[in-house]
């Protein structure tokens, strides 16, 4: 019997620092909700709006798989591994923090707001050598299709991480129905609605709602609106 | 009353940041070290409420460290700190102490 947890958009943690307007699906920084600590190995899902030219100065990370998906605008990234890059909407960035890495993240545009999703997963091994990657996604390939954008396999298209997790993005026409098969036994899937309205396993979800489903091997999906865009995060439910 | 928290991590830069973050809250007193020897020596002379294991501590070192620290202070809470910064810190500490 499948189980689920529903996180409505307006129940997320919220912090508005002026230059940064952040919504947290799980406990993060000063937002602490013991009922919202993680979904399996998915520990952080932040929906950040960053004002033009603003951002996070150099700061360290370790032992975490950090995935950044710009939804609008572009982010300028620099890190202690020597990477300096701009990641735009339609691209994905991944960083395995491992033994430790320092980086800065700024809105690359002075006059345009940046909206990004930043997602942290617990790694399946600690103290790996830090690594960085970014890829341009084929946005057309996600029309009425869950396009895989991340996996544990370096040989797959798009990015990989140190965790048995698969991410998929899809953008759907109204009325489109499909099923998503969970990639690995005992994984669950956390669906985050980027835009529009969808129904997953009978639950109607609106923009920025989240639904976690586990103890199942598939979920049913229907797009209820013409602009339905969803990120699926297929993750181990047991912490390593 | 302050909660005394020991952070152990191998990366000196992260250790400095952790010390700043922990001591930014008046209810916490943070002490940060990079070596297991420093951690054990500190545990011998000061009561601790919580130990955070940071980056670079391999499985064997962690096993030895846990054994030594809990021998000195039975019941001492020792958890893994993930992320190396402020993002998860408050949640980790609150979850453990509560």
From TrEMBL, chain A:
Family note: Belongs to the pirin family.
Residues reported in the UniProt entry to bind Fe cation: 59, 61, 103, 105
Pfam family, one: Pirin_C_2
InterPro entries: Pirin, Pirin_N_dom, Quercetinase_C, RmlC-like_jellyroll, RmlC_Cupin_sf
Organism taxonomic ancestry: Bacteria, Pseudomonadati, Bacteroidota, Sphingobacteriia, Sphingobacteriales
Positions of the Quercetin 2,3-dioxygenase C-terminal cupin domain: 149-235
Superkingdom of source: Bacteria
Cofactor(s) for this UniProt protein: Fe cation
UniProt cofactor note: Binds 1 Fe cation per subunit.
Domain Pirin N-terminal: 12-121
Entry keyword set: Iron, Metal-binding
Name listed for the protein in its UniProt record: Pirin N-terminal domain-containing protein
GO MF terms, alphabetically ordered: metal ion binding
Automatic annotation (TrEMBL), chain B:
Top-level taxon in the UniProt lineage: Bacteria
Protein name: Uncharacterized protein
Organism of origin: Pedobacter soli
